[in-house]
Amino acid sequence: AVIGKNEKEGEKTLRSPICCIMGHVDSGKTKLLDCIRSTTVQEGEAGGITQQISASYIPVEHIRERTKELKADAKLNVPGLLVIDTPGHEAFNNLRSRGSGLCDIAILVVDIMHGLKPQTIESINLLRMRKTEFIVALNKVDRLYGWKTCRNTPIGKAMKQQSKDVQREFDHRVTQIITQFKEQGLNTELYNKNKERGETYSIVPTSAISGEGIPELLLLLIQWAQKTMVKKLTYNSEVQCTVLEVKVIQGCGTTVDVVLVNGVLHEGDEIIGPIHTTIRSLTPHLMKELGGGAYKEIKAAQVIKITAQNLEHAVAGTALYVVKPDDDVEEIKELVMDDMRNVMSRIDKS
Ligand code: GDP
Question: What number does the ligand 1 atom closest to the CA of 34 have?
């Protein structure tokens, strides 16, 4: 089976957009990813510090299901959405900046009870520097005093169920947070009032615990990516792949987790990074519902665990190249060395 295949091949084929989740520690990034990828929202799980990048591929059928109440007539043309959660802890600065650099679009999570915090501002600066589009998830709306839970409901509908007091507190907090964004030089507006998308960033109120607002968030992400990034998202046979992490796994030896941004990887492909080896197996990071296991080939975009011999010298942040029949291996090795020097100088600076 090939995963990441478009439902209708033949039309202009788009790859899945890569979306990363950024924001202050404890704003709910991990929980939001859990909520997006699960069909049923679980409650009461203890939060912890995410120690590594976690990623999930959300197939478009799942997104269609989650957004059906919105009755959006717009077509969803991408095979899915690849969501990457970059750890918020200070110690993972380097990892965070590596993950976010690969994103097409981002979700910036802000806790409605706390507003903008130092890492929110750090995230804004990273996004601005890389000119990455983003949508603000104004999370934890369920913590507004007196909030009536409307599980997995569009936020537009859930807001109508709330008392006048809740609506008043909501408006007050939103106004304050819009002002805080303004102080950072950013125009933001609630998604349903935003008439100037592109210049003004949209805010979608969400609860990662009970799921309100997730439908709007998903729909907006996909629609915005499809509308503004067709060129970037057009599927390409040229492999574009970056190493995220090098990990020793019991029973598998050293493995690498990569982000396949474009193209397709096959079992048996000859790859060159600082390493030179042949892919033994390819396992995508998938939603639990899709099951685990290895695939013969995987199409972009996807986060994939690769097993192969000699991966010990792979370096996080560098590109992996696939050798094609007519390629000059020495030429590719030159490219790799340039890449290494770049990554090393970036590490020295940080
Ligand atoms: P992260 O550090 O940004 O990844 O934050 P977590 O996802 O670990 O969440 C931090 C804490 O906030 C955890 O205890 C979560 O259960 C809680 N939390 C996250 N999102 C929500 C939300 O929407 N509503 C409420 N009430 N709690 C939330």
Answer: 7
**Which of helix, strand or coil describes residue 49?**
coil
Stated pTM of the model: 0.87
**Residue length, the chain?**
350
Cα–Cα distance for residue pair 81/107, rounded to 1 Å = 12
- The ipTM estimated for the assembled molecules is 0.99
Distance between CA 328 and CA 284 in Å, rounded?
29
Integer Cα distance of 323 and 238 in angstroms: 11
Residue-wise pLDDT tens digits, 253-305: 899 988 899 999 999 999 998 899 999 999 887 655 555 688 999 999 998 99
Question: What separation in Å is there between the alpha carbon of 107 and the centre of ligand 1?
Answer: 15
Residues lining ligand 1, CB < 6 A? 23, 25-31, 47, 50, 88, 139-140, 142-143, 207-209
Place of tokens 């000699």: 310
- Cis peptide upstream of residue 301 (ω within 30 degrees of 0): yes
List the one residue out of 56, 18, 246 whose CA is nearest residue 133: 18
Q: Which of 275, 341, 335 is nearest to 309 (CA)?
A: 275
CA of 26 to the centre of ligand 1 (A): 6
